[in-house]
Description:
Elements: E1 5-13, E2 16-17, H1 20-33, H2 40-55, E3 63-71, E4 84-91, E5 105-109, H3 129-140, E6 145-149, E7 155-158, E8 162-167, E9 170-173, H4 184-192, E10 198-200, H5 205-209, E11 213-218, E12 222-229, E13 232-233, H6 237-254
Parallel strand pairs: 5-6, 5-12, 9-10
Antiparallel strand pairs: 1-2, 1-3, 3-4, 6-7, 8-9, 8-11, 11-12, 12-13
Amino acid sequence: MSSFGLIETIKVVNGRLVFKNLHVSRLHRSLKAIKIDETEYKIEDRILRILKYECIGKGLKNFRLRIEVQKNKMHEYMPDVSPLKWHFTLRPLESVQYLWREDGLSLTVLPKQTKPLDAFCNLKHTDRAIYDNALYYARDNDFDEALVLNENHTVADASIYNMFVIKDGIVYTPPLSDGPVAGVLRELLLTRLEGFTIQEKSLEIADIYAADEIFLTNVIRGIRWVSRCDDHYYGHTTTQRVFEAFRKVVAEHYGEHLV
């Protein structure tokens, strides 16, 4: 764990951080979890300086910014040195806007390996072997994604997504106690989406197969509906309504250029 680091992946559009406050708050909470007491102001300032001097200064406006933050061991015996080391990479965006896609994702379940429910299970961090294995397993078996189960054999999340199911008009997502990464879009839907009942609930594989609809979320790709999980097939009527409500929140609070 000597190279353990936190990851924050941010969508940058027109030179601005999308969902900036949610990302800063999540990174602040994550740093506290690994015993780094840094203020939100300093975290935001460091990210904005990365954005200004390393990205915008080079003429880049739309991209995926992946930030990796690690403890700086030198700080332990040289207090004047920053307690954190920051690394970043840039990748092109598939789309600047959050768009509805008619093609649904195919989903399966990662077998044999489970995610431990430890102090780091909700953090987005560099020890991602189980998620890499989930994605490899999915691709090797002609699926787009694979669900990851926790040590209690309930659903945590997928390799790069949080997951939601819809049953009888109610939207459910695994609680943080079941080990999902605390996704930014997950938080946005739970706290700001209007017109829907969204509840945190432990989900077993039987609940996934019996769902009326399934959708996955992440901050870069937005909301993606699932057309099938193994041999079970789903529609997207309610999911499309969720997506339109999400677009409304994004347009009102973060800018119409994103939708």
